[in-house]
């Protein structure tokens, strides 16, 4: 179900900005709820400067899973992605949602970020599913942070090591699970499609080293990837119950070690310069 096109005031848009809740929302619900709250808080701060529309950068934002809902909140979003196909899908999706005037897609990647966007020009930066694929994750985080205005919001989402180990073990691939557990990059073998995974400590260290205060860490898809899809699709109320369980477990450190993804939310210091 697509949100209807209409006026784009932040107040009106906030009433229709939450993504729909199909089973796919299990992958994004926790992150979206945390991100939306952080953007709302940022609006209250900038609102004192008579500026309620935020400038948001989504690095690796693809076809707009987060960019379009953020635009529906009334903000301006720039998506940087290396894939022309993804950017074409983003353009179409933004048009269908009625926010084409608020979403801009540019081809590029995080390591070449300032070839295509302004340094220090954004109130919030989303860096979701990017660090797994860059040669230098620390540099990737630093560049993302350098795009922030003072006190800007960083939303970082990375693949979790523990979730991959648990998934391989539960699938009966015990040797692969052990390889992932001991591999420096957290990979379970040559056929692993993910080049790198992280622990919560590793991600928070990267963020703090880049000059960002960590406000919260969340485990994402703690249970969702382990529950049979047929159960969620056919059992009445199962989806909403699972979403509630994911939300309840997300902030508990005990579950970070088994989450498929890890989300770090932080705030840049008053000066983002090294």
Automatic annotation (TrEMBL):
Bilayer-spanning residue ranges: none
Polar residues composition bias: residue spans: 8-17
Record region (Disordered): 1-24
Superkingdom of the source species: Bacteria
SUPFAM superfamilies, alphabetized: S-adenosyl-L-methionine-dependent methyltransferases
GO biological process assignments: methylation
UniProt keyword annotations, A-Z: Methyltransferase, S-adenosyl-L-methionine, Transferase
GO molecular function list: methyltransferase activity
Segments forming domain Methyltransferase type: 57-154
Protein name according to UniProt: Methyltransferase domain-containing protein
Species name: Streptomyces kanamyceticus
């Amino acid at each position: 179900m697509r949100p209807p096109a209409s006026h784009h005031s932040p107040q009106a848009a906030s009433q229709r900005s939450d993504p729909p809740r199909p089973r796919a929302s299990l992958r994004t619900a926790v992150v979206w709820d945390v991100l939306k709250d952080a953007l709302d808080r940022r609006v209250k701060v900038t609102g004192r400067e008579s500026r309620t529309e935020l400038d948001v950068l989504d690095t690796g934002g693809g076809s707009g899973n987060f960019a379009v809902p953020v635009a529906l909140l009334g903000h301006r979003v720039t998506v940087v992605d290396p894939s022309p196909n993804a950017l074409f899908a983003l353009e179409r999706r933004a048009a269908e949602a009625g926010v084409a005037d608020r979403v801009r897609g540019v081809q590029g990647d995080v390591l070449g970020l300032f070839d295509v966007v302004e340094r220090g020009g954004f109130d919030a930066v989303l860096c979701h599913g990017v660090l797994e694929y860059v040669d230098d994750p620390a540099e990737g985080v630093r560049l993302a942070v350098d795009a922030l205005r003072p006190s800007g919001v960083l939303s970082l989402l990375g693949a979790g090591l523990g979730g991959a180990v648990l998934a391989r073990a539960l699938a009966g691939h015990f040797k692969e699970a052990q390889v992932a557990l001991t591999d420096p990059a957290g990979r379970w073998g040559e056929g692993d499609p993910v080049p790198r995974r992280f622990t919560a400590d590793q991600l928070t260290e990267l963020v703090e080293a880049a000059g960002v205060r960590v406000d919260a860490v969340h485990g994402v898809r703690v249970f969702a990837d382990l529950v049979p899809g047929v159960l969620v699709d056919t059992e009445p109320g199962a989806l909403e119950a699972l979403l509630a369980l994911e939300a309840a477990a997300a902030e508990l450190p005990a579950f970070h070690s088994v989450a498929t993804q890890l989300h770090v939310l932080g705030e840049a210091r008053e000066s983002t310069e090294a």
